[in-house]
Amino acid sequence: MTHSADAALAGTGTSRLRAESLHAGYEGRPVLADLSVEIPDGSFTVILGPNACGKSTLLRSLVRLIRPSAGSVILDGAAVASIPTKQLARTVGLLPQSSQAPEGITVADLVSRGRHPHQSLLRRWSTGDEDAVRQALADTGMAELASRSVDELSGGQRQRAWIAMALAQQTPLLLLDEPTTFLDIAHQIEVLELCTRLRRSGRTLVAVLHDLNQALRYATHIVAMHDGQIVAQGAPQEVGTAVLVEKVYGVSARIIEDPESGRPLVIPRAPSSAD
């Protein structure tokens, strides 16, 4: 299936997760102001924008790690603030920007922690949990490394181990905060191809990415931010324009068709050659 066909098939016109008139920030410093957004079901939505524009703040607000000062996040018709913690964790998984594993923990043990939302005093570890961990390891290509210490892994392997932990939660929605940062190009592609496979399997994914061209190639839906506001959203073919690049990043660019994907490809212009 081509990326164009993927884009046409992504989403159902419905949205389980949305934010309405959201105001959020840190210690009295506002970051998001009156922001509203809907995450299309079945999409791979990528949030783009320059540093400090509010991308991670929005992502963290969607999963209740940040309490908004005004507005609300709605999941399945209910305010996220009112949803019990374990119920929320069984619906939305999060891969944080910076993840620290306990020293000496194995990949299998780390991934097993993704089953915590499904445990209780009356429900302990089960064959269902074992199957979920096994499937998460397989989906991320980490099964052969299950007994290895996380400390021994390469950057790309470590990132896949954390993604596997998030997958083990078996949530229909998965949020990833800068999953490719600090990875070399080969590992970046591994992670993004995995995201594509997960979306094709029926999950809805939301990721913060810094690489504009990678976002345009892999995403089915783009949310572009600047200064705490959403300035454009839609399919990559719709929002991947020179006007948007100038508005969001302040960079003059030429847009051509990516010969590999048929998507927009951004070629920044040197200041001396800008129109």
UniProtKB/TrEMBL annotation:
CDD domains: ABC_Iron-Siderophores_B12_Hemin (cd03214). Gene3D superfamilies: P-loop containing nucleotide triphosphate hydrolases. SUPFAM superfamilies: P-loop containing nucleoside triphosphate hydrolases. It is a peripheral membrane protein. Keywords: ATP-binding, Cell membrane, Ion transport, Iron, Iron transport, Membrane, Nucleotide-binding, Transport. The keyword Nucleotide-binding applies. InterPro entries: AAA+_ATPase, ABC_transporter-like_ATP-bd, ABC_transporter-like_CS, P-loop_NTPase, Siderophore_ABC-ATPase. Its main location: membrane. The keyword Cell cycle does not apply. It holds the Pfam family ABC_tran. It is found in: Cell membrane. GO terms for molecular function: ATP binding. Residues 17-252 form the ABC transporter domain. This is ABC transporter ATP-binding protein.
